[in-house]
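Help needed: design a sequence for this.
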């Protein structure tokens, strides 16, 4: 059999088996609340623009969630990468910050919820900009600071750790050789250190994005949330709409997998030299 066909078929075996088990179990249970039929969930996924339980469409809620995740994730990357590079390169910075940051590393994002609510309440980007009405207010009011902070915490530590690891494992001979050839500190960072550490940093960005996306549901359970796929799932549960719950879960999985594939594609295309170097 053609190798390309095999590469496509093998990953499909487990999902197909799971769907067959789901069909059999739903038929035997015969209760839409406990386990809805596959066709009812597929119908929701095939019509993502239809209004669901007066909470907007599946696609609009996924879009709101995606914006929240991207904002929290970009903040995590903007802080985690520079700090990780500094801690990985300068021993003093590592000794100064490592113990302090490790105190907060084991704390799960959900544990921050009471403190975050005390800090931010239901304040949003609209509140910060002083907006109270209008279409822009509707969009920006969905970007609650508390939600963005929870997502930020989820993505920050994987990015930080991978950045530190990447810089620390750069071959020091490369750095010393660049200095001997007259490179300035800026040139060492730009031409040697960051490119050599980039595969590890990209891996951290990939893991951080996945964890940020996982933190989404807990972030959207916070007070003040009236949209997003996480809120849609929890609200659908209270109305016993299990088909919407599963459709929301599948949407989270599909979007998360798509984002991971983008990172994987970029990693393979740009940093395949790292595997060859080993």
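Sure. Designed sequence:
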């Amino acid at each position: 059999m053609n190798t390309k066909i095999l590469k496509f078929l093998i990953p499909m075996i487990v999902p197909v088996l799971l769907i067959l088990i789901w069909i059999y179990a739903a038929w035997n249970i015969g209760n839409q609340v406990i386990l809805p039929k596959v066709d009812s969930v597929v119908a929701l996924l095939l019509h993502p623009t239809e209004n669901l339980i007066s909470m907007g469409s599946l696609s609009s809620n996924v879009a709101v969630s995606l914006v929240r995740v991207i904002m929290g994730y970009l903040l995590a990357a903007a802080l985690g990468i520079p700090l990780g590079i500094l801690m990985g390169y300068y021993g003093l910075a590592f000794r100064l910050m490592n113990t302090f940051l490790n105190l907060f590393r084991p704390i799960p994002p959900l544990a921050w919820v009471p403190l975050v609510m005390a800090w931010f309440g239901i304040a949003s980007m609209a509140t910060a900009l002083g907006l109270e009405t209008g279409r822009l207010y509707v969009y920006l009011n969905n970007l609650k600071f508390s939600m963005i902070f929870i997502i930020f915490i989820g993505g920050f530590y994987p990015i930080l750790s991978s950045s530190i690891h990447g810089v620390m494992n750069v071959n020091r001979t490369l750095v010393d050789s660049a200095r001997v050839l007259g490179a300035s500190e800026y040139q060492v960072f730009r031409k040697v250190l960051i490119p050599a550490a980039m595969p590890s940093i990209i891996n951290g960005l990939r893991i951080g994005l996945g964890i940020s996306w996982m933190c989404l549901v807990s972030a959207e359970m916070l007070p003040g949330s009236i949209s997003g796929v996480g809120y849609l799932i929890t609200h659908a549960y209270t109305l016993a709409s299990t088909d919407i719950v599963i459709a929301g879960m599948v949407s989270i999985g599909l979007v998360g997998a798509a984002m991971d594939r983008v990172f994987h594609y970029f990693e393979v295309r740009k940093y395949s030299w790292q595997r060859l170097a080993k």
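The mean pLDDT is 84.
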